[in-house]
Amino acid sequence: MTTQTLTQTGTRANEGFVAIAVAAMLGLGLVFLAGFSPASALHNAAHDFRHTQNFPCH
């Protein structure tokens, strides 16, 4: 009877890095979408939300 041993070579670290990178890109995308949007309704909604969260914006 033979036994095989599987080894992990840093896949957890790589998965964590990928998850952080994807979350950062989505977050930055939302910030830039709302901040530079030509539609005033979207920009004003994001602006008002920032004020309700006590986040300074100007």
UniProtKB/TrEMBL annotation:
Species per Swiss-Prot/TrEMBL record: Methylobacterium cerastii
Keywords: Membrane, Transmembrane, Transmembrane helix
Protein's name in the database: Cobalt transporter
Residues passing through the membrane, by range: 16-36
Keyword Membrane (UniProt): yes
Alphabetical list of Pfam families matching this protein: CbtB
Highest taxon in the source lineage: Bacteria
